[in-house]
Write a structure and sequence with these properties.
2 domains; two-stranded antiparallel sheet; 7% strand; 149 residues; 25% helix
Length: 149
């Protein structure tokens, strides 16, 4: 079943999505995580203003969905991973709030070889830098070294 544009079902999903985003921003902007030297939370809004891409015929591009038309496909996962990665390298205030879903691997941003500034916030006034060691690009970034300047 496909919801029609502006159907009550689609409007309800949009409303719930907006409420979730609002509550997430509220949680992060509060003082719950202030004063922590070992933890920070940074909103990565790369899907905030995104939409399902359309084909040339004006239909939803089903290549972004799995065969059940509910879960996202490998292509969509790749696009979202690129957008998340790029946003993590952007400083606060310059993070992208959309994803144009163009399949182009050249749009992947790379951290500098010498150093990459973790683009987030720290509760303290100190500037935090991260040196990414060779092999640090594991899923959990387990071999990350923090350097306080």
């Amino acid at each position: 079943m496909i919801a029609e544009d502006n159907s009550p079902e689609l409007e309800e999903i949009k409303r719930i999505n907006q409420e979730y985003q609002t509550e997430t921003r509220y949680l992060i902007s509060g003082d719950r995580y202030d004063g922590r030297e070992d933890f920070t939370v940074v909103l990565q809004p790369y899907l905030h203003n995104s939409f399902v891409p359309y084909t040339g015929e004006g239909q939803a591009d089903l290549s972004f969905f799995s065969v059940d038309c509910f879960h996202i496909s490998e292509r969509a996962h790749a696009e979202m991973a690129i957008a998340l990665w790029n946003n993590m390298l952007e400083p606060l205030g310059r993070k992208q709030a959309y994803n144009n879903f163009t399949y182009d691997r050249s749009k992947i941003h790379c951290p500098s070889e010498v150093w990459t500034k973790i683009s987030g916030s720290r509760p303290s006034s100190a500037r935090w830098w991260a040196a990414l060691l060779p092999g640090s690009f594991s899923p959990a970034f387990r071999r990350k070294t923090w350097i306080k300047q």
